[in-house]
Amino acid sequence: MTRQLAPQRYRNPVLDADWPDPDVVRVGADYYLVASSFNRAPGLPILHSRDLVSWEVVARALPQVPPVEHYRIPRHGSGVWAPSLRHHDGLFQLVYPDPDHGIFVLTAEDPRGPWSEPRLLIAGTGLIDPCPLWDDDGRAYLVFGWAHSRSGLMNRLSVVEVTKELDGVLTQPRTVVDGDEIPGCRTLEGPKFYRHDGWYWIFAPAGGVSTGWQSVFRSRDIYGPYEHRVVLAQGSTEVNGPHQGAWVDTPEGEHWFLHFQDRGVFGRVVHLQPMTWDDDGWPVIGSAGEPVPYYARPAQAAVPAEQREPERSDDFKSTELGLQWHWQANPRRDWHALPGDGTLRLRLIPDDLGDLRRIGHVLGQPLPGQPSEWVTSVRLGPAPDGARAGVVVLGTAYAWIGLIQTPGGLHLLCRRSLDGPGEQTLAGATLPPDRDEVELRVKCDVEGLVTFAWRLPGEVEWQSIPSSFAAQPGRWIGADIGLFAAAPLGTPGGNHADWPAAGDDTAAEGYATFRAVGVDVGSGEGRA
How does pLDDT run across 69-119, given as a tens digit for each residue? Predict the structure, then answer.
């Protein structure tokens, strides 16, 4: 997706989709961003930019979320919480928390990989949002927060000394900032550690994901005492709760701050704010401490005319899944096949209990923050009764459209599930006996209202489903749009659903076939 603007400025958000809890590091002229991935796998997406405005996904550092068997099923809201990304002694260092297991570390010489297997640095529950700092004397420290749901503690930041290789703990954690001692401070979390101008700096948000603000703390001693200021808040803008992120400089000496905004069904979108320093040495972010809707681009030798976001469409002509995709749980090798001929094959896993929130083999990506239109097709070959394949918009509630095998033949169905188990049929149609494929269209508007349509291949007019669906966010994430294939629990396994390239009309026995996923996303013009 590109957004046309005057070449000298950009528009926020620079990443208008769910890239939660971003952290950014610069190495030379390259910027790398990492985001939370929670239960989704592969996790820890790594994005690259040369100008802080246009980004592409270049890796997913975590193929499987540990413990691997624990995350074989969707554990919504668990897994990889807010990570940090640093570059030290020639290595990229990724530190992330799992609030149910502890703090993990991965390393790589190249952020595109390969990444090391994650190693457990600190075991425990409730430890969140870690960020390392290597001091001038070579010693290393870790700042982190606490999840009340697991530890009983919250609203405080702690520091612990660790080995410089981040493979061992040297001291007991010490609380360096107690939010309860700061009037009005609540839910202090998401710290990022820096050293600048003789000060230790901790950037940390407070006040809640959708309603809070960004604070900064500084001290001459790593253990405090720390003084503080609020440096970014919603104020008179439309950007609610400007939340945790990353301070980064440019080769030209500019300073910038990337943070997220919680947009509900569209997740935690990423904004870029200019950052300067006042006469007392404190950062000034945005426009006098409020987020900017657009701004002059960071200084670069060559700046493209468009503002570009990561690729969403996929023609499935690769033998590996595109980096835009993730599963809802740790995948198994037999979940899919990509022969490289424009066909994605999804196995009809026989574990379907009628609730798509409970199956891991939904292949998804975040729903864009701008109006979007998704087009594909599905063909379901010979399959057990109850087997289904289609497109789903998935959150705490979901809706799907696709094909289902019944004793009477193939049916087109559109169903939704709202507050719990069980699905409600919105529309249905029986396919002619000689047809086993339908084209599908999913549209989502600026408010997250989803409409579905279908047609038989070769037809021009779409048949719209009369009922719409209000997409819902997931647990700590926005909604996903995904592809799925499943069969009822206990039925014979081994069949697949196929998602082939446009123009492939070869029927494959035992398969459901999907055409390339084409995505059209609005420009964002006119949205506050």
Answer: 999 999 999 999 999 999 999 999 999 999 999 999 999 999 999 999 999
The pLDDT assigned to 419 comes to 80
Residues 437-475 as b or e (16 or more Cβ within 10 Å = b) = bbbbbbbbeeebebbbbbbeeeeeeeeebeebbebbbbe
432 preceded by cis ω (within 30°)? no
> Higher confidence at residue 445 or residue 503?
445
From the candidates 18, 23, 129, 189, which is the catalytic residue?
189
> Is 247 in the same domain as 377?
no
Average pLDDT over the chain reads: 92
Asked if residue 233 and residue 378 are part of one domain, the reply reads no
Known active-site residue 21: yes
Residue 509's nearest CA partner among 383, 397, 386, 406 is 383
**Residue 373 near residue 367, CB atoms below 8 Å:** no
Sorting pLDDT into bands at 50, 70 and 90, what band is 304? low
Q: Of residues 16, 18, 21, 504, which has the active-site annotation?
A: 21
d(CA 497, CA 511): 5
pLDDT tens per residue, range 477-490? 999 999 999 999 98
Go through the chain and tell me how many residues it has. 528
**Contact call for residues 31 and 24 (beta carbons, < 8 A):** yes
**Mean pLDDT (whole number) for 294-317:** 84
Task: Kindly report which listed range (151-165, 269-283, 329-343) carries the lowest average pLDDT score.
Answer: 329-343
Return left, alpha or beta for 519; rule: phi > 0 is left, psi -120 to 50 is alpha, else beta.
Answer: beta
Is 317 within a domain?
no
Give 506: exposed, middle or buried? Use CB within 10 Å, 0-12, 13-18, 19+. exposed
**Amino acid identity, position 340:** G
Task: Tell me if 273 sits within 8 A of 291, measured CB to CB.
Answer: yes
Give Cβ neighbours of residue 288 (< 8 Å, ≥ 6 apart): none
Question: 81 with 115, same domain?
Answer: yes
Is 181 an annotated catalytic residue? no
> What's phi and psi for 297, nearest 5 deg?
-65, 155
Separation of alpha carbons 225 and 177, rounded Å: 8
pTM (2 d.p.):
0.94
Contacts of 361 (CB under 8 A, 6+ apart): 327, 328, 329, 331, 335, 336, 346, 347, 349, 484, 485, 486
Give the position of tokens 């061992």: 168
Residues 260/363, Cβ–Cβ less than 8 Å = no
Class of residue 281 by CB neighbours under 10 A (exposed 0-12, middle 13-18, buried 19+):
exposed
Structural contact between residues 34 and 19, judged by C-beta atoms closer than 8 angstroms: no
CA–CA distance, 96 with 243 (Å, rounded to integer): 18
Angstrom distance (rounded) from CA 81 to CA 101: 11
Q: What angle do CA 37, 42, 44 make, to 5 degrees?
A: 40
d(CA 528, CA 524): 9
Domain that holds residue 56: 2-308
CATH of the domain at 443: 2.60.120.200
Number of domains in the chain: 2
